[in-house]
């Protein structure tokens, strides 16, 4: 060792430093050996003797604590790696030196619900220009107030008032598909090929535009609008920022690049402020989410008022949180129905019984919400394809005991892995099979509702879940009620590459189907 260090020092340029180091090469070697020994011992201690050593995991991961990007390559595939660890080691695993993944239903309930462990610091990466929102804040007291103020917009009464807006957009989608079929028929084709994945994304954006501020983006009709594009650019950049968080130099470069890009994306703020100003100037009241947020400005308590900036950022959040989440879930439901034609037949049968085909009728949420098979299809899709496939990261700010026996040191991440819990064979017979009948009353293989967290749980659960369920029921039911659906060969291939970027999705962002009128 000493000889090797001496040789290496010979390569340094002549001068004081080289002479000094060469004169003291012995001490220098000892210092390096001590530092390396300490580093190795510390890591070995963490793996074999430290407080989390009773939690199994991969030795290399825990010893080196490699940056997250290492496990996330190709981008968006980290969830597969962690699922593999759960398959190998069980319901609780160390997924890196600093992070623990949990797929045990009792422990997830403890983390998210009972102890309400705070969101991980990484959520700050999603704060556009430092603005806190319901989703990205890690400050509990900010969250408590903001949630109380925003909640009326998502009450059952408010959501019911949004059905008209949603139905208008669903009709646009149905007309669009009928037109595609008519055009195909004119060309002597019996079915039309449509990219359902993209169409659903467009529909979800139109729905959120109309319900949030009474302004459809007309994405289904025109295929584009600058606002969703600017928001999705910002979001994918934030994801990159989060993934590089543990490599400070790369993270700093990414952050600087983002700042420049965001300045170019200034139109987001301008677009939103003009909508708010138009609303205030017109003096007309609407039934949308924006109206409820604007109304808070008359609240008695100062803390309960949302200024324009807060309204803008919460609305941007709804656009992000409320679009691909629902569209991808409906999209995945369609992929499952196509893969299993009997489930599609049963769903169509249920809808036909509710709305006999010889009577012209409009599908209403009041009826749809009580259709057991429709709800079974949606729940089963969210079980196997949860939006938050990668889990829900929380961070303990003081030493913490999980499940009565795991000692988690301050600063560690606890990731509630809802996918691995929702496919945990301890709770779900035939865990990977798509079986909507699990959710029917009296089923032989009843769903374990305590092991089902698609909308999370506790104070940070999804505020938009009633909204999402209404939208998903309306769109999915209308689609399968009106059309026959068949797969396209390339789409079967597309399903082989699924990724978790922000939400769980198909890597090619495309899923084509053949449709004809029923
Ligand atoms: C299938 C549809 C949806 C699913 C599966 C879903 C799932 C989730 C999950 C798992 C969380 C917790 C995230 C975390 O802890 O990191 C969440 C939070 C949130 N979601 Fe959803 N979501 C859906 C649709 C929506 C819609 C339609 C909206 C709004 C229009 C929405 C708005 C929000 C907001 C604002 C939060 C943050 C709530 C808080 O921290 O107080 N979501 N969602």
Automatic annotation (TrEMBL):
Record-linked InterPro entries: Cyt_P450, Cyt_P450_CS, Cyt_P450_E_grp-I, Cyt_P450_sf, Cytochrome_P450_monoxygenase
Keyword Oxidoreductase in record: yes
Residues where heme binds: 462
Gene3D superfamilies: Cytochrome P450
Any matching Pfam family: p450
Claim: Iron is one of the keywords in the record: yes
Protein family (similarity comment): Belongs to the cytochrome P450 family.
Entry keywords, A to Z: Heme, Iron, Metal-binding, Monooxygenase, Oxidoreductase
Annotated signal peptide: none
Cofactor requirements of the protein: heme
GO MF annotation: an example: heme binding
Name of this protein: Cytochrome P450
């Amino acid at each position: 060792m000493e000889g090797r260090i001496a040789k290496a020092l010979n390569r340094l340029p002549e001068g004081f430093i080289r002479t000094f180091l060469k004169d003291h090469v012995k001490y220098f070697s000892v210092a390096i050996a001590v530092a390396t020994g300490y580093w190795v011992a510390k890591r070995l201690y963490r793996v074999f003797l430290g407080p989390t050593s009773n939690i199994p995991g991969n030795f290399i991961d825990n010893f080196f604590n490699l940056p997250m990007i290492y496990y996330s390559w190709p981008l968006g595939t980290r969830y597969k790696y962690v699922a593999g660890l759960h398959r190998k080691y069980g319901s609780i695993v160390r997924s890196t030196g600093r992070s623990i993944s949990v797929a045990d239903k009792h422990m997830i309930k403890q983390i998210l619900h009972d102890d309400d462990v705070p969101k991980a610091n990484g959520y700050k990466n999603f704060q556009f220009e430092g603005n806190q929102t319901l989703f990205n804040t890690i400050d509990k007291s900010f969250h408590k107030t903001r949630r109380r103020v925003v909640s009326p917009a998502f009450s059952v009464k408010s959501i019911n008032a949004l059905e008209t807006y949603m139905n208008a957009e669903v009709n646009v989608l149905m007309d669009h598909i009928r037109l595609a079929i008519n055009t195909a028929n004119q060309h002597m084709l019996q079915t039309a090929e449509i990219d359902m994945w993209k169409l659903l994304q467009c529909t979800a954006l139109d729905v959120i535009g109309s319900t949030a501020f009474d302004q459809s983006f007309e994405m289904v009709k025109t295929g584009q609008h600058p606002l969703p594009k600017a928001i999705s650019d910002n979001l994918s950049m934030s994801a990159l920022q989060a993934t590089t968080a543990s490599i400070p130099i790369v993270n700093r470069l990414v952050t600087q690049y983002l700042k420049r890009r965001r300045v170019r994306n200034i139109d987001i703020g301008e677009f939103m402020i003009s909508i708010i100003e138009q609303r205030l100037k017109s003096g007309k009241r609407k039934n949308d989410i924006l109206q409820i947020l604007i109304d808070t400005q008359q609240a008695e308590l100062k803390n309960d008022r949302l200024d324009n900036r807060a309204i803008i950022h919460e609305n941007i959040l709804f656009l992000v949180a409320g679009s691909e989440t629902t569209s991808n879930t409906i999209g995945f439901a369609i992929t499952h129905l196509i893969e299993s034609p009997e489930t599609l037949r049963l769903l169509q049968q249920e809808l036909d019984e509710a709305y006999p085909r010889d009577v012209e009728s409009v599908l209403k949420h009041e009826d749809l919400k009580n259709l057991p098979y429709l709800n079974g299809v949606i729940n089963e899709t969210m079980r196997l394809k949860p939006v938050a496939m990668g889990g829900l990261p929380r961070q303990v700010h003081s030493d913490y005991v999980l499940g009565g026996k795991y000692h988690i040191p301050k600063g560690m991440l606890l990731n509630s892995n809802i996918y691995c819990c929702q496919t945990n064979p301890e709770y779900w017979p035939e865990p990977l099979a798509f079986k909507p009948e699990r959710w029917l009353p009296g089923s032989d293989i009843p769903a374990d509702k305590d092991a089902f967290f698609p909308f999370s749980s506790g104070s940070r659960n999804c505020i938009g879940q009633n909204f999402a369920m209404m939208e998903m029921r309306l769109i999915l039911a209308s689609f399968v009620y009106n059309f026959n659906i068949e797969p396209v060969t390339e789409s079967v291939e597309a399903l082989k590459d699924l990724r978790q970027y922000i939400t769980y999705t198909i890597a090619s962002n495309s899923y084509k189907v053949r449709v004809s009128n029923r």
